[in-house]
Design brief:
Layout: H1 2-75, H2 81-88, H3 90-93, H4 98-104, E1 107-114, E2 121-128, E3 138-145, E4 151-155, H5 166-180, H6 203-212, H7 217-220, H8 222-271
Antiparallel strand pairs: 1-2, 2-3, 3-4
């Protein structure tokens, strides 16, 4: 009798377990539906926050403009400000060949302008004095995002003077260097104006807009900071040398003192 009773108990346990599984699955499904509802509310708030943040950015972008203008006027008083800034920037300097630097010595002003709605893109303008390389007074590159979020870019066509096209010269230099197995110079900085292959990942444009433009002075002053550090190291070295000289003089005095003592002892022995 005990065996059949045990079997009945096992069936009851299994049926109860199956019922618990069904209840658990139902509760899980309900929880998932509620999570989805909550997530929709979070997404709605995120969209609202983005709209509010955009309005704040637009407001302060307008407030910054007079200060950018004043800064540009002050920068114009400093010769070679922008070429120095670019040369001192680690990422930009890697793109500069010797002739690029020569051409950028004629660069007088850089301006970054975000479009009024900000999210649709921005433009970078480079203003040049009369120079031996190209006819343009201004070179610009624009970055756009269309309504679907696809990026694109366009730029000024550079009107190179005869024999001065740095983008072609760069490719010729690289070909010669590769044949001779020499160090290859970087592509010309100015090829950036003609490169529209991946506007969504334009590193140079992003570096200028997000890193250099907010505070170019920090990169212009890099050499001065290095000079100050070097001067500090030289002063430390001079102090150490001074201490060594003092130690040496002290050692010499001790030697002379010991010689005088020896002479005195010899004199005493002679008198005896």
């Amino acid at each position: 009798m005990s065996a059949p009773a045990a079997k009945v108990s096992k069936k009851e346990v299994n049926s109860n377990h199956d019922g618990a599984d069904e209840t658990s699955e139902k509760e899980q499904q309900e929880a998932i539906e509620h999570i989805d509802e909550v997530q929709n509310e979070i997404d709605r708030l995120n969209e609202q926050a983005s709209e509010e943040i955009l309005k704040v950015e637009q407001k302060y972008n307008k407030l910054r403009q007079p200060f950018f203008q004043k800064r540009s006027e002050l920068i114009a008083k400093i010769p070679n400000f922008w070429v120095t800034t670019f040369v001192n920037h680690p990422q930009v300097s890697a793109l500069l060949g010797e002739e690029d630097e020569e051409a950028l010595h004629y660069l007088t002003r850089v301006e970054v302008t975000e479009f009024e709605d900000i999210k649709s893109g921005y433009r970078i303008d480079f203003y040049f004095d009369e120079n031996p390389y190209f006819e343009n007074k201004v070179l610009s590159k624009e970055f756009h995002l269309n309504e679907s979020g696809d990026p694109s870019s366009k730029s000024t066509e550079i009107k190179w003077k005869a024999g001065k096209d740095l983008t072609k010269r760069s490719s010729q230099t690289q070909n010669k260097a590769s044949r001779k197995r020499q160090h290859e110079e970087p592509e010309s900085f100015f090829t950036w104006f003609t490169d529209h292959s991946d506007a969504g990942a334009d590193e140079l444009g992003e570096v200028i807009k997000d890193d250099i433009w907010p505070n170019p002075l920090q990169y212009y002053l890099v050499p001065d900071m290095e000079d100050e550090e070097a001067e500090g190291e030289e002063e430390d070295d001079e102090e150490e040398e001074g201490l060594e000289d003092i130690d040496e003089e002290g050692d010499e005095d001790e030697v002379e003192g010991s010689e005088d003592d020896d002479d005195d002892e010899e004199g005493e022995e002679a008198e005896v």
